[in-house]
Amino acid sequence: xxxxxxxxxxxxxxxxxAGRVFQDIYPYLGASQPEISVISGAGAxxxxxDILGVEGAATKAEIFERIKNFEEQSDFERTNVLCREIxxxxxxxxxxxxxxxxxxxxxxxxxxxxxxxxxxxxxxLKFAQPPLCFILFRTPPAKARERSEVxxxxxxxxxNEDMRMLISLHIKRMGMTATMQQVEGLANLLDGxxxxxxxLIDLLSxxxx
Length: 209
Fold this sequence. Notes:
Blueprint: E1 3-7, H1 14-25, E2 35-39, H2 44-55, H3 60-71, H4 75-91, E3 96-101, H5 113-122, E4 132-136, E5 150-154, H6 160-173, H7 180-190, H8 194-206
Parallel strand pairs: 1-4, 1-5, 2-3, 3-4
Helix pairs in contact: 2-3, 2-4, 4-5, 6-7, 6-8
């Protein structure tokens, strides 16, 4: 595959799962991978600048010059340059994690035009492991999944039963008591979101300070 695309709410473990999948299948990869964030409205120049940043080999003056040259090229040439940079990262036994902060997916759930172009260019190359991993906050619908070389995975939030168990264990560990109805009420408020659970645990802990 060209890429993995893992979706789910923040804090649910998307990057952790991706890292474990890559290490299990490709054990020669390192424990940590370079990553860039793509905000809404980001273009090819922004992607190029961020990729140069994670490579970290060039000076500021060299990066400025390379960005200037990049912006003077055609869209086709820019895509080729981006693909070469991603290939260079892959040759170093690394996978570039692309974090979606609003700029990876189009409103219909398909990849943005720049990302589509990059995937098209990468499809012409050969890789020992997928060169990209997309960390998405929403799951693209089936009709928007245009490339078969991208594998999609969705991580759901915690189940209500798991929430109740974790809340009960923490309350017991803190030497506090709560009825099953109270635990159930708290679990319903958390809506399966790990960050909400973390907030609740911190709140309960602060009650004993």
